[in-house]
Amino acid sequence: MPVTRDAVLAALSRIALPDGGDLVARDMVRALSVEGDAVRFVIEAPDAAQAAALEPVRAAAQEAVEALPGIARASVVLTAHGPAPKAAPEGGLKIGRHPTAQAGPENPAGIDRILAIASGKGGVGKSTVASNLAVALARQGRRVGLLDADIYGPSQPRMMGVTRRAASPDGKTIEPVVAHGVTMMSIGLMMEEGQAVVWRGPMLMGALQQMLTQVNWGPLDVLVVDLPPGTGDVQLTLCQRTQLTGAVVVSTPQDVALLDARKAIDMFAKLKTPVLGLIENMSTYVCPKCGHEAHIFGHGGVAAEAEKMGVPLLGALPLALEVRLAGDEGRPVALGDGPAAEAYAHIAARLIGGGMA
Ligand SMILES: Nc1ncnc2c1ncn2[C@@H]1O[C@H](COP(=O)(O)OP(=O)(O)OP(=O)(O)O)[C@@H](O)[C@H]1O
Predict the structure, then answer these.
(1) 122 marked ligand binding residue
(2) Which of 40, 114, 280, 293 is most buried per CB count within 10 Å?
(3) Which residues bind ATP (predicted)?
């Protein structure tokens, strides 16, 4: 009978570590594969010094696995990982871990649609669009979640005016925070203020997975995900692990931003994620004193790009002081009734009308 992963893990859980616990309980086994009579895995120590001291443990692990009936050889490698920052969860849940196996792309239970808000370049207003769109959708009666997946630079707590930390009373699930009618979760709500996230790709992917699956999102019509800028691990994980309804790409009309937006669109095409449309942010600036209209970042670039790509232009949002002030105050401009709020209401209605939100 072929040996199972569980049998290998059971053997490894009997290998005691010098400073207490065992390899499995201390979550140090990575990339375990069982192929016929061969087993491979990595023992990941917290740092290089501890890895060196664990050589006898590695040898014992290899011997224990090779002693299992049906196993001819075990290849066991020791590696070191830099220390992960300590998240500061309330209730003992730690955010940031390696991703766990998943059968295929699936959405967390109760979430009907997932909309990713993406940009090629940083600073074009992606987080501003995500928070305002979430609020505009909620104002139109949708049950909306907002997941801040910009793990290195979470800005949703500030933009949504949330200072309360997320709690995990049972140490297993996280209670999200509700702000302006939107259920929200951000890694910023789990970390101490001023604490930096210094994780490698796998830890990021694990943290994103936790924020999708361990948060009590409740039933949602749509989960809006504020992605980090660019085309990295978080984008890849989200596209591969969930059934995304689609992505909305935000850009300014400036050439350099458009160039990067094109790369983001290309990434989504490669990952077979539909691009639902482009949003031109900081489109025009109307001087509040004289009414003169200026195109600070250029004009029409995003519309032309959308046409070229064959995707809809969902809207053009003005560059306006009230948008920036509202974001800084934690009361997204879409909560009000000025021209920017109207523009967001229009985009939200369009997404709802198209069955996308
Ligand atoms: N239409 C707008 N009018 C005025 N200010 C804006 C507008 N859109 C965004 N801003 C401001 O520009 C700054 C950057 O916006 P935001 O953080 O949303 O960009 P981002 O693309 O998410 O950036 P990052 O990629 O760094 O997270 C913020 O201070 C925000 O308030």
Answers:
(1) yes
(2) 280
(3) 120-127
